[in-house]
């Protein structure tokens, strides 16, 4: 059954106007009045619904019963990702949401080729939010991952964090899997550098700020692979 995010609060029995993007999608796939769909508003659970009318730019639906379905991890993972080139960030965010990441923190690191500010940053942030919505619709999550504003790496470190920060380094001697087995499930942040990784100065600054340096194995992973591999490893150890 098609699933769609509806930003306004939903309640059984209500009639809601669906977002324009959803209306366009319904028009393209030729859904008809009376067809069933699923809606969620990000507050938890989902609602059965019935399409009332559909056009190119507008559609409405009758909200049905609430289903207390969740697909969230029992531990909150934040992916703090150094900005990569091109559209790689789209792919990273999409897959991170599918893997269950609770929050994404874009980072401007020294080796980040992409530099964003002003209107360009606003547009990219809105685009990434759309990626989160689409990935959540596809993978069955009923709560949206939080997207933090872009932060300079040094300023981000200075904020501090109550959860452990894990930094991946080829010089680390302890593996992520060994640490995860010993530490047990808990909220944490994964620090992932851009292409070329964090600089030596950034890596040391992170460690000085309390980050734990760990290894992802003997192979060097691309920036778009490292974070997803780390989340998969944690899920394998902690979810069994």
Shape: elongated
Count of DSSP E strands?
Answer: 12
User: What is the CATH topology descriptor of the largest domain?
Assistant: Alpha/beta knot
| Helix coverage percent | 25-40%
Query: In this structure, how is the largest beta sheet organized?
Result: 7 strands, parallel
Q: What is the string of helix and strand elements?
A: EEHEEEEHEHEEHEHEHEH
Structural class: alpha/beta
Distance between the termini: 29 Å
CATH architecture of the largest domain: 3-Layer(aba) Sandwich
**Which CATH C-level class of the largest domain is it?**
Alpha Beta
**Number of helical runs?**
7
Strand content: 15-25%
Overall pLDDT = 95
Total number of domains: 2
Task: Specify the CATH homologous superfamily of the largest domain.
Answer: SPOUT methyltransferase, trefoil knot domain
Low-confidence stretches: none
Radius of gyration: 20 Å
